[in-house]
Protein 1
Amino acid sequence: MSINLLISFLLFIFTFFNWYTSLDSQSLGIKSAGRKLSNALSNGPFLYEVSVFFIGALLSIILIGLVAYVVSNNLEKVAKNKISPLFCLILTWLLLSITIFSLSSYFYHDLFFSHPSLANKTLIIIMLLFFSILLLSSFFISKNIKITSFIILILLVPEIASINVNNEIQTTSKPNVFIIGIDSLNQDEINEKQTPFLQSFIDESIYLPNTYTHVARTFPSWVSILTGDYPLTNKARLNLTNFNQIDLTKALPYYLKNAGYTNYYIQDERRFNNIDERFFFDKVIGPPATAAEFILSKFVDLPLLALTSKLKFFNYFMPHLQNNRAVWVTYDPTRFNKIINVSLHPFEKPVFVASHFTLPHWPYKTNNKTNHLKDNYHKYLESIKMVDDQVASYMFNLKSKGLLKNALIFIISDHGESFSRDIDTPKHNENSQIINLAGHGTSIVSNSQYKTLLSFKYFTNNELSEFGGVRTKLNYAMSDITPTIIDILKLDVKKEFDGQSILKVKKQRDIPLESSLQPMFNSKGTVDINGTIEQNANLFEIDPLGKVIIRKSLYQKAVNSKQRGIIFDKWQLSIYPEHANQIYITDLESNILYKYIDFPNARLKVELLDKLCSLYLEEVTVAQVEPCSNLSYVYNQSIKEL
């Protein structure tokens, strides 16, 4: 047995060495990330997670070694000792190595070791039959029965157990609450042909076409959704903000938990949105939101781990490698939906489920797709079609469990997505290259980035409730969602929110916008992974829970560099620090951008600037928002602070 375990270990080391020495050429960024997260080696949760992962890797090596041991022994026995033990050993490992590489190539086309010639279905079937017959022959030749039983136990029992999905129907009459988020959804791409489910939901619900996110990044947007406040108020201004800055008791999950709800949070990629149980969620479904995930997820390129991590038994040790949208080479939206369906049980209590699906996020790829040679925009369009199917399937599963009989359902997007096309920015004569940036959170004048989906409906005993008087043509924001839910459910919450209940908005309001950290782009217009990591990794550290957070000493510096804007009625005023604090005004109806100095309505432009400076008054001085610094009330505020 020891020789088989040794060969299994050496095979793993061989693949690891070849993979690791090629990391730079693949631009994975693992080496630079490792250097930047220097406090990882003194962080207990990080070291524990890494240790558990490598225990899983060791068990994977042992499992394959045991398979080889049983097969080679049984092969010798079946041949009635006419074949030498050495030949049986060599043949077994040759065929087992081919099987491992063939299976990983078949399931995961884009792994480092995958090759189309190995992904031969006929070859795989023959190999699997060979190993299955020789494994099961243990029960007929009375040899290695205990080890074979152990192998079968690891391989099959957890898989069979997970098939039995709980199909109980919920009995409570209290309304469930669902917020279904879709990442990076450009509003111009929603239509009957491309997103039939989303379009049908919009057609049957209250749809607010002029809705904006305050920060076009997932974490700040979701914190605004859950708190009902602007980022300026809730202090979540950037991705990976330290939770110590946020009052988590002033959030929707806390209010609903006190009202008797069971809270779930679901997300298939949590790398930059580490919302977890601290937000008063009873259960979180999705991959780990930890510093270790950034590094351990890279090991998916090792064929053995890519395969064993598919098994339920090993998923406990290596949850980073499967059902993780960040590891797109193995991500399968259908499988993730099955995980949700198994994990989400109806209760006697009502449930609050906040879910977020990230397929449309860069790099717009997923496992087993042939669109990878297309340009980013066309890959993005396919990812939108896939997420439409995924959300439709998710809703079907909720309905089959009886969870939508009495339910308040929001379908939203956290932000949009820009591809630096002419239609992604307002019409203007100058600065097109420095304003029209790709991605999201990079340029606040881009409606493609900041306009979001907001559509909702309310069922009572399977009957759709009507809300009269909602003014759908007004402007709304992500911070309006929590006040709306509290209003509809008539919860006893005394807090005053920055947002308002959608049912009570009767006139236009000021809506603040902020930019976020900007990624680096290469000459092809795509994200430069290594450059972005090198540029931004110094911002981050690992907290005592093993989470990546922005360093406190650098947080305010990052906030100071933000673009700031405000929307009122059909106008948006924006200040760009990187353009020497240039001020722009956008006519949102005609989609035209003006420089402040060229804007024809002198009174209106002063009023808009006054609105922005009043809203950001407390940080005008520290952030050096120069266009506001000469206003009299800003000067008086500065004197008071001194």
Protein 2
Amino acid sequence: MIHVTELLKRLVIGRAKRSEELHETLLPKRLALPIFASDPLSSVAYATQEILLVLTLGGLAYLHFTPWIAAAVVFLMTVVVLSYRQVVHAYPSGGGSYEVASSNLGPAAGLVVAASLLVDYVMTVAVSVASGVDNIISAVPDLDTYRVPMALGFVALLTAANLRGIRESGRAFAAPTYLFIGGVLIMVGTGLFRYLVGDAPVAESAAYGIEPEPGDEDLAGLALTMLVLRAFSSGCTALTGVEAISNGVPAFRKPKSKNAATTMAAMGLIAITMFSGVTTLAVVAKVHIVDDPCHLVGLADCDDHTQRTVIAQLAAAVFGGDSSVGFYYIQAATALVLILAANTAYNGFPLLGSILAEHRYLPRQLHNRGDRLAFSNGILALAVVVGALLWAYKANVTDLIHLYILGVFTSFTLSQAGMVRHWNRALRAESTSAVRRRYHVARVVNATGAVITGLVLVIVLATKFVQGAWLAVLAAVLLWLMMRGIRRHYDATAAELAVTDPRDELAPPSRVLAIVLVSTVHKPTLRALAYARALRPDHLEALTVAVEREEAAELEHRWEQLDVDVPLKVLDSPYREVTRPVVEYVRSIRRSSPRDVISVYIPEYVVGRWWENLLHNQSALWLKSRLLFTPGVMVTSVPWQLSSSVRADHPAARAPGSVRRGEPPNAATARHRPGPP
């Protein structure tokens, strides 16, 4: 009979895959695009909105900066896409920005990139899911009270889909992504066509004025510059996830680098087209959106008014109102793709975590593959952190967005700086003039990218730090310190365990002293005695603690009755302790015979129900935890299977990926291993 947990696991995750089936999970370009590029593609649903939200702080007068800010974002995206296409070709192992920075700028810089990206992947999931929920609420405002449960439910669905494997998640997410792309392009094309023929769409908020924030009525000089820079930094959310393809090159079919570079070019072209179109249409339709609806001049009841997103207002304006088929299509596709955009991080975070674990900067468990050959422990870790973040911030996009994009521009900047050094080395080793010219062009592209993304990083820090970005900085710093500490621990452990002279380690002890712990005379006790005797120790004795003198006397009497030919030692315990007398007795033997090995045998029950563990083995567990810290003492559990354990005798009780080793992305990654496991 199939165990219920095994059945549930198979329904959610699917059948387990053999390691030899890893090649079957490789992706064609048509599936790689929605998997690795859904984040930058979907960001057009909120990048324009973030620009408008900042500009309207000063009132309607400053919305004329929108096209210029959008143009700057498009230029930046073009430079970043071109730069990362070169990363894909130069470093096809899948480390992306982390590998570029580590190889060219040193391990410390690589860890800065890794910490920044891990934080940004978490924020990608949180912002994408929260924004998707926002668009659902724009279509059905009554669902606003269920914002957090909806967000957590979507995280659970994404987690389950990704536990099934990268290829399966790609198949599930491909259609919504392409439907969103098609829907937005049709909406933009229709709206601009109507504008050209003199029937421009008008947003539902176009009739409202905007009351500026106090002090922002007449901005000039530095204040105006800061407003524009802040709007630009918010619009740069359109670039999030661009680097994901460079991290996922090993997941592509051969030729991997070429397919990844082609996919990145397609992603850049589609994202730029959609972002430019949505921004242009928002300006044409005169969309007015603010943080607080009460700043909309002319709105009758601002307290109960729920603003629709920019994409929702455009869909209603283009397709004939909020009851049209086109409106609901765009809202459904947008909400779905925003939620599925988190899949970019669900692929990037576990893969980067696996590489870091391979390099011993994160726990080794993150390098394990699960039943479906996905890095299941990394997927589950990401889900837990994102769930906590959504719950803490009540799935509010405006609050979460301030923690966003800081990490991605840190990785952009260091990655491009590392690529400049990479091309410098390549130029020193290359003499062919045609190849050198190509390298010079590549270096100029990466140098330009490093300078521009570095400036954007400064802008983002300056404009978002006090609004909440400091939390992302703090999280990245703590993560960097933690990874350094983990690496030091692994290195120290490897050095401590390294064999210098095998003869010293293989030298047998002078004597082996065996102690069997006894609580009562029953079958588990006799099995432990028989097992200890079978190993032929130099000395064997049974040990019990007299918590109650009457029980101890009865135990001694029963011992003599059964004529057990092993001496029974009784330790007095006037304070009714069990652990301390046993530990002190074992340590006293160890002090008197430091060259001897003491082997302690503890009978234990094996049970099949979780609650039975609460009723048995508690003293044994505590004793083992204390004895394990005593040098020269070996602790052996002698199991006795109770009848209930038979029902648990199946392989389903292990968590996905908990006992399966992962494979390094390729030989280049394996070369970074600091030592044996």
Protein 3
Amino acid sequence: MMRTWQITTVTDAARARIALARLAAAHGVPTLERTRLAADLSAHLRQCLTKGGTWQLTLRLAGSPAEEGLLHAVVAPSPEACAAGEPPWEVTVPCPEAAGAAEAGTVAEDPAALAEALLGADEDTAVVLDKLTEQEDLVAFHREELHQTNQGVLALHAELDAAGRAQREAFAAERSARNEAESARRRLTFLADASAVLTASLNHEEIVRRLPELLVPEYASSVDVWLFDEDDKHRSTPHPAAAVLAARTGRPQYAADHPGNLPGVDDQPASALDPATPLLCVPLPTRRAPLGVLTLSPPGARWNPDDAVMLIELTRRASIAIDNARRFEHNRDIAETLQRALLTDLPATPGLSLAARYLPATHGLNIGGDWYDAFPQRDGGLITVIGDVTGHGLHAAVMMSQLRTALRAYAVDGDSPGRLLTRLHRFLHHLQPDLYATAVIARFHPDEPTLTWAAAGHPPPVLRLADGTVRTLDAKPGAMLGIPLTQEIDDHTVQLSPGSTLALYTDGLVERRAQGIDPGIERLAAALGRFDSAALDADLEGSADRILHPLLSDSERDDDVCLLLCHVRSDAAS
């Protein structure tokens, strides 16, 4: 189907537009598409009327199967304009429905019909406006959704930022806590290690010397230890006023040109001795009164409060260590003095030379247990004895003196060494059931060429014969003195000749923790065997020193040492 309109005037254009709209409506073109098609046609026809001339509108409904349901509109100029090369205007729209009447596109020339068509066009426009209003409402709705979405995104970003800040703060707090825990662990480790070093020594001067080595340079740049009873040694050394105040009050003092704000520490003005250097003065406390004052200067500008707390605690422990060391030194000096006072001046005996050595321990409170003695009997014999009381200190020294006194009392009766040890065993068990002792007794007699000896739990005597042969007198000994056991200790005898030397000793001379006692006895035998009779005759005292030196020079003495040499002179036969 095809229809054609000639357009010369505005009325022709309006009638053509109305016809197009009606035809499109009749073929089911949607209102929006129909309105858009009519608007485009009106705009083009307005241009055509402006140019003038006659124009031709052709509407064609495609009938071929390939183009079925398409409405073609073509505005072409007059044949003259086409000849002049004026291009046609074409548009195609889909038609979903067939026309309801053949005259659907007819428009009467009556003005009333034109008005009616105009009103119909307004209806289409109203529909378009309604659609437009719906779209605007939809756009407003989507705009509001977009706004809400944007607000939600902003809120989410704010929450994410807050969460990020909280996470960063949590990480920072965790890192700070970890650093504080590590610092606390480091301080506790240092405090434990330093305490172990200080308490390991029983020499107070060594403890005082070790304090600066432990604290400088990590916790202090300088350290001074002021001990009150040693003030005479440092009378010319002035002490800061804060140190004097700490000594008087027993409270730590901080002297500087700024507040220290240290826990448990009083702030004082800067020291006049060195105003530019802050000083921490901590008393060395004991149960009775402070021993002195520890004065420290900081490793930097000032101390960390936690470091100051640790330093005050370390000072307290150092004070305990110094106090314990002094008590030990005092007791050791008393015990050593008592023991040396109880040791015998060796008697002069025809044909027999004696040399004795006693050396106190250099490590630990091991004074008072070892002893030696030598005294004559009424028949002209000489009793020599060496022993070791278990335990150390004053108690051991007192028990040693009691055993020495008891032995001398028993020996008056003329008993043999074995009988004397048996009586000492009973005496000690009765007097001190929980205290034990070891001993060796040897009896010499100028009229007898034999040595009688007996041992009770003690290292065996070592005998050098005149020909240089060395023997260990390890015949079956008795048990330790004082143990809850009834025993009779036997005597043993060995032939002596001029030039022979008997060595009695305590275990401190030969025993080493890492080696035991047997290698030490072998070393003593070898050392004694290197002497000849002439050297022993000439200088038994010097020989005793030369025996001790190689045996003791390789280690610290953690026990006291006794050595008693009994030498039968070579000229005794003459």
Protein 4
Amino acid sequence: MKAKQANLLKFLQTSKQFIIPIYQRTYSWQESQCQQLLHDIIGISKAEDNAGHFVGSVVYFEQDHHNASEVPELLIIDGQQRVTTLTLLLAALAELVQQYPDVLESTSATKLKNYYLFNAEEEGALRYKLMLTRGDKQSLIDVLEGHPKPPVEVASNVRRNYEYFRKHLTLENARTVYAGLQRLFIVDVALERGVDNPQMIFESMNSTGLALSQADLIRNYVLMGQEPKTQARLYEHYWFPMEQLFGEHYANYFDWFVRDYLTLKTGHIPRIDGVYASYKTFLKDTKVPAVVEERLRDLHRYAGYYVRIVLPEANHEADVRLRRAHQDLLELRADTATPFLLEVYADYEDGHLTAEEHEQVVRLIEAYVFRRVVCGIPTNSLNKTFAALGRLVRKPQYLESLYAAFQLKDSYRRFPTDAEFKREFQDRDLYNLRLRNYILDRLENFGRKERVLVDEYTIEHILPQNENLSKAWRDELGPEWRRIQEERLHTIGNLTLTGYNSRLSDKPFAFKKTVEGGFADSPIRLNAGVAKEAQWTEDAIKRRGQTLATKALKIWVAPALTDAQLTPYREPEAAADGEYKLEQFNFLTGEMGDLFHAFQKRVLNLDATVKQEVKKLYIAFKLDTNFVDVIPQKSRLRLSLNLPFEEIRDPRNLCKDVRGLGRWGNGEAEVGLASPADLDDAMHLVRQAYEWQLEN
């Protein structure tokens, strides 16, 4: 590696061509970065010390030592965003000077172009100092050649940023900008082919530009180590088509797609900033072309499913009912279900379930997530639930096995029953729930072929929100009007949709019902029941709430297999190896027994779902699995905490790392509990293990 400081303009002036390899991301700087760059350049030119300004490094290596051309073709592996942006700025400056030749005294438009934009003596592709990747190549050529913007052009940051510089370069600031450009410096890093490892250097670069995404790192990793022809084929057949699938959503969604893909394939949920490392592990760090191609082919396959699930409108899912189901699920923001949905889509494509069954699966997941939200069940365990769900599906009995899997879940993973859901749906404050528009949309449009666009209407409180209710409303509700308003105001029975919110306002019920556009004159189905009521009383609100809750049971349907149908799916009970009781522990007497029972009460009070199991050597407290085990000892209770040691927040350093020590119990950390005075500190640590089990 040879690294040296270089003036940017002199660096560009030499006869060479910079090529962005196909494995690099497309040009991705936004207007905000261009604005900052222009601001910095103007500031540099006005600095009194005439000091230069460092803009980062440009790392490259020569593509082919045996190239007969006199113009070296250099592959940039770091710095393309800065080089491209500065090229666009120079192109905009050259155009301004072309129109106003006297604006710069020290140079001309021809010199700007021939020094920094073109290799003047060359023809064809070698004529251009910078050659971008497929997605941006033509856009840059059009800009440099002064071609008019095509009538239909794929959205490109190249054209957008060029137009930004054209707009902000003026006769007043042109000299200042050019003076600032002359003070820009880079670190010129030339790699030696066959000696330097581009991938290692690429990963270790501390770029001052836009941070690389996990997808950028993955693409570079799988393509950079391949032969040029293999690179081109893998990029053209798999990676570029994936970029096209995501379109403008690529930058925001692709990392999340790979995370969900890896969750499906490995059963482990990687951190979003650890997707690249997880994918390398998934590839087993191999660069064998056949293995890489097989994995890329599979990734491309699932990318097609992902965009149909997560971007159904943008990618025109062919099945209208399935597209609608995915859109409704998106309203719930049930991202944790996506790995399982990817598996379901693959099973559908492979013929394991029909299109109708596919839609039923999506609706079942929607019902599971929504019922839990309405019933106030914590959602932080859903990622683990969905990551493991595919293992419970028996493909010959696809729907039945999935219904059974949900129906057999208990505790905090349960599928809320009809009774629980109906009670909460009609009595809970749904107006202040984030999903209120989604709820009213599903209620209004269920079974309706001509959809009502709920977003075009306003949510109306039939009984007004105004704390100072009018006399007409107080008389209608009776002496307990304030209690009724407090308890029933935001419940589903009192909520509807209207296009006449300002007209209805706080008016009496009779007016709201009979006025033009009121409840009796409304095309909204939700208003049909309201219009039948003579008065709007507490009983009327409850009646409507019960009616809508009954309808909700038909929309968000729970599985209802019989006991006979469930039997084949129940897990066989583990063979007993003896029944154990607390009395078997000799040390659980006296003060130590009292301490254990105090600890036991605190742990069981964490949640009704916590279970205690007495084992031969310890007492376990668990959700699906143990989160703390207690080993009674003569002078203390030894607690084994089942969570990664590095995850523990332990400011008092009470925990001991017992990884690899062969202790009884499950966990990487242990802490001693010797007296009631230590209970609060112990529970602080136990709660962390409990919450870690919930979330993982």
